[in-house]
Amino acid sequence: MAMPVFGVGDDPGTDFPRLLARIGAVPGPLPAGPIQGVPHATTCVALRYSDGVVMAGDRRATSGHLISHRSMEKVVQADRFSGVAIAGAAGPAVEMIRLFQVQLEYYEKVQGTALSLEGKANQLSAMVRANLPAAMQGLGVVPIFAGFDNRRGVGRLWDYDMLGGRYEEREFVATGSGSLHAGTVVKVGFRPGLDRSAAIELAARALWEAAEADSATGGPDMIRGIYPILATITADGWSTVGDAELAERYRDIIASAGEGIER
Description:
The mean pLDDT is 86. 41% of the residues are buried. The radius of gyration is 19 Å and the shape is globular. The chain has a single domain (39-262), classed as Aminohydrolase, N-terminal nucleophile (Ntn) domain (Glutamine Phosphoribosylpyrophosphate, subunit 1, domain 1). The protein is α+β, with helices and mostly antiparallel strands and 263 residues long. The N and C termini lie far apart (67 Å). It has helices spanning 16-22, 90-111, 117-130, 132-135, 179-189, 196-213, 243-262, and strands at residues 40-41, 44-49, 52-57, 61-63, 66-69, 75-79, 82-85, 88-89, 144-149, 154-160, 166-169, 172-175, 229-234, 237-240.
């Protein structure tokens, strides 16, 4: 496809997905009826703490009862001060995040300034809503969006429904097949003003308990060295929690679980 060219009076606008539709660079319609055998991402959580937000997601993707991927990355940086965690159909979710990343960069280049955090949440809402026809065929995407709001100086969280409805959460949010278990752990352990260490510990334990109760959620794989993805977003930006730190935390969690069994 040739590079599109716009005249002086023909403004392409700041909406990159709409621009793609305008020049015809969009995929064709899906086949009719439910689509089977699509890998699905599972459990993600996010919570606020004193310096910003923590986002966490397990690494397993499933196709029915089959483990299709053991190391999927479900928590992805959107830009310097925001991230997206995904649950639902893996393929559409990954493509949605890529388009979202490009949209944020495109807006900043066209406008000369970054979109506000709430504006980013609205952009993602529009993308989720645009995916509704695919969701009706079993390819739904249910993300979490989180980031640090530099205008307010706080971390903020949003979750979504498949119709594109967005809902800001004050403390924490969970999505995916293990969300009931992970969300319960976070709800019980959450306290206002958690520091970084306590917030990471709580998110890691939430995914551990979800993996214990939900077969579609993967726990830490100590043999292969595969751990959940955890990241913090603060006034300094996005930062991924390293595997060495996660390995140490999960060794402590496993040890405490063993003590409970012995008692």
